[in-house]
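Predict structure. Input: DNA polymerase III subunit delta', 328 residues.
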Amino acid sequence: MSFNDIVGQETAKQLLQNALRRNAVSHAYLFSGPHGAGQMQTALTFAKALFCTELEDDACGQCLECRKVDHGNHPDLTLIEPDGASIKIDQIRDLQRVFSYRSENRNPKVYIMDQAEKMTTQAANSLLKFLEEPQAPAVAILIAENGQALLPTILSRSQQVPFRALNPQMMEKVLIDEGYAAALVRCAVHLASGLDECRKILNENWFAEIRNVVLQLGKESLNRSGSAIITASQKVFKTELSEHLDILFSMFHLWFKDMIHVQYGRKESLVFIDQAEYISGHASARSTAQWVAYMDLAAECQKKLRYNVNGQLSLEQLLMGLGGNTPA
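Output follows.
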């Protein structure tokens, strides 16, 4: 894995490779942006490039140092992630102990902290002291979806490296070339910010199942028969799909948006590409304003879910709202 293998994120790659070429690597970086947009892959590649004995501004992937990183056993690289719900002060103390030993081959020691915004206040204050007074030459890579959630003093001591959600069309081409089903890929790239996240959900059996259920519920809700609520009870809440309601609501949002795409003659933008004929035949069943209202309702129900409102009640509210001419 080298910088050339990282899809997109040209700004981040250029910033890091310029630092390597100029021998001006900062002691701390903050990789911020949507979860799964390639931050961890880039962090590991940057660490490899710092250790690599063959290349100046990238990782060769062949030398002993690169291979150690690939195998997860490089003594000068430490990965930190939340222990349960948070990153705790004991984890920072363990890091300080590890960094009290000399590095191999005069490498800087590197640590990558995933979900850095989940540090407890104690852990963050301990890390701040460590950033200011490392016991050995060190490079910190903090990964956070929301960098502003970190202490301002940590932000001020870290170089910002921005990551953005990858272009869906770019991800779609890569994933289809890898052999994933086109209809599932088109849906996944509109639900995830990066290739790793897309692959993760595409490899889950429930993803295709939940997509099929959304299609069935979306179609049944148009006929106002009330059968959609029965289907939801049987196919969602009596199965493991009930654990993935957040994705289900997001898919509904995309389904309603597809109806609007057809109304405006944008069939090439459809997410549910294998349903183009059905969507074309039913998009006129509601006005654009009503489809927009359904999108808003799906977003509202999804928000309630995140505030721990009962999932079954949230989905039933959506389905009942779709059963009338205007959402409830």
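The longest strand covers residues 138-144.
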